[in-house]
Amino acid sequence: MSIETPPQKSSRVVILGGGPGGYEAALVAHRLGADVTVVERNGLGGAAVLTDVVPSKTLIATAEWMTNAEQGAELGVRRGESRPADVASEHFVDLSVVNARVRSLATAQSADIRSRLEREGVRVVIGEGRLDGPSTVVVDGEDGTERLDAHVVLLALGTTPRVLSTALPDGERILTWTQLYNLEEIPKHLIVVGSGVTGAEFAGAYHALGADVTLVSSRDRVLPGEDADAAELIEGVFRSRGMRVESRMRAEAAERTADGVAVTLSDGRVIEGSHVLFAVGSIPSTDGIGLAEAGVELTESGHVRVDRVSRTTARGVYAAGDCTGVLPLASVAAMQGRVAMSHALGDAVSPIKTRNVAANIFTAPEIATVGYSEKQLQEDGAKYVTATLPLARNPRAKMQEMHDGFVKLFAHPDAGIVLGGVIVAPRASELIFPITLAVSHRLTVDDVADSFTIYPSLSGSIAEVARMLHPRHP
Ligand SMILES: Cc1cc2nc3c(=O)[nH]c(=O)nc-3n(C[C@H](O)[C@H](O)[C@H](O)COP(=O)(O)OP(=O)(O)OC[C@H]3O[C@@H](n4cnc5c(N)ncnc54)[C@H](O)[C@@H]3O)c2cc1C
Predict the structure, then answer these.
(1) H or E stretch including 202?
(2) Most buried of the four, 277, 302, 470, 474, by CB within 10 Å?
């Protein structure tokens, strides 16, 4: 039996920004009976679809193939009859083809999202929007200026890449991640500045695609803030594959040379490359669009201040996604948007619990995490036990010559409740879900250990680590 939500036709909802924070919310609001307009200045799907998630993961699909091909020789794959060839060396990547595929996939997905919204009855207005008070959005669009009055406004504005004034991107050699997809050839030597998630993903991917890569990291190790063992493992893998990592070093400036770029480091050295990619964070798109005047409070970093049901400080104005600075993930943006609309339109709502969010870093191997991290547990002074199993001990991993990776769980020592987990493995993004279920539903390590896993399978290691954590009662 399905229960129909009573329509609330009188509610006019205007959503500023058509990324995952905005378009998912539009669908929910429409389903709840509202009259919905989405205002978007670029394309539906937002940065997530046009420049960030979809393009980067499509590029990484090719990089992943190259990484797998490298292992072919270990698995006994040969080309030709007698020549024991290095399989990877038989292949090269045509970046113009890869990038054409990336662009066409992103454009098609953006068009799909637009037609889905329109099919369901959501109005889409292309143009630059701003607030004129908390209940009016003014749009400068192709057909002139339009005023949209609303009972509920959702800000889903996203962010743009941070740029340094001493290294202004030119879109050819000095690049942000949004400018990578017009490259026709693999950079000879790509300098990647920034070793957070974005920097690490692109450094790994371009290295696998055939570029020489230097990764400039301002911290002791790459991926600061991530599980320390996972970050150490990835840095080790990067170095062992031949990537140069400049640790505890900042890039102060970058300029074009006759045939490439020169990047000045904080110790005064200048390193030369063919291209430089800056992945040094993002700036929320909250400036100059009437937010403060409408009573929407911003944090010091310029993000929109929200509570756990996505309300801002202005009545009737909600915010979702990266512009709130809660967690820069498409899945979180979408959840915040859905929660905002459910709350605004009087549907049942549960506040966002960021503790349950699963996240993945698409390096090779991938790093997937969920629940409490070890750092959070230590900072909270929480009681916990932990166990780790290297991937190299897993039978399936042995068969597939997977050497680098592990499964790690954190659990309460007495109750055995699973508090969090880390998986470092190829396709860890696909393996983390059982741990997400355990964390979300407060399952115990025994619940996990007593469930059947396939033999042989990588997920077998999840059950085995859970078994290692069986609470010992005196
Ligand atoms: C390289 C990279 C890779 C990533 N990979 C992943 C990943 O694999 N998985 C994941 O979960 N997350 C990933 N992310 C994060 C993810 O992209 C963001 O969390 C997500 O895009 C946030 O969605 P959003 O709706 O808040 O913003 P966006 O997707 O940025 O959308 C905001 C939209 O608002 C529009 N807009 C802004 N201001 C106005 C205005 N005044 N008028 C009209 N329109 C406006 C913009 O044009 C934009 O289209 C990645 C990020 C980067 C940088």
Answers:
(1) helix 197-209
(2) 277
Across 153-180, average pLDDT: 98
The finding on whether 20 has its CB within 6 A of some atom of ligand 1 is yes
Angle at Cα 21 formed by Cα 15 and Cα 27, nearest 5°?
A: 65
The yes-or-no verdict on residue 474 having pLDDT over 70 is no
What are the structure tokens assigned to 95, written together? Answer: 């970046």
- Binning the chain into helix, strand and coil, the percentages to the nearest 5 are 35, 25, 40
Query: Which atom belonging to ligand 1 lies closest to the Cα atom of 320?
Result: 26
Please tell me the predicted confidence (pLDDT) of residue 8: 46
Token output for 113: 């999202």
Residue that the structure tokens 């790994």 belong to: 204
Q: How many helices (H) and strands (E) does the chain have?
A: 13, 22
280 lines ligand 1 (CB under 6 A): no
Residues in a beta bridge with 175: 277
Q: Which residue CA neighbors atom 41 of ligand 1 most closely? A: 129
Q: Using an 8 Å Cβ cutoff, are 233 and 390 in contact?
A: no
The rounded Å distance from CA 53 to ligand 1 centre is: 8
**What count of other Cβ atoms lies within 10 Å of the Cβ of residue 110?**
21
Res 73: pLDDT: 86
- The dihedral region occupied by 38, where left means phi > 0, alpha psi between -120 and 50, and beta the remainder, is beta
Q: How would you classify residue 67: left for phi > 0, otherwise alpha for psi between -120 and 50, otherwise beta?
A: alpha
Rounded CA gap, 306 and 325, in Å? 9
Question: How does 142-151 read in b/e, with b if 16+ C-beta sit within 10 Å?
Answer: eeeeeebebb
259 CA to centre of ligand 1 in angstroms: 33
Q: What is the mean pLDDT of the segment spanning 47-67? A: 97
Ligand 1 atom 38: the closest Cα is on which residue? 157
Extract the tokens encoding 4. 């129909």
CA of residue 287 to ligand 1 center, whole Å: 16
Containing 337, the helix (H) or strand (E) segment is: helix 330-344
Nearest atom, ligand 1, residue 51 CA:
1
Give the pLDDT band of residue 70 (cuts 50, 70, 90).
Answer: confident
d(CA 472, CA 319): 46
CB of 341 sitting under 6 A from ligand 1: no
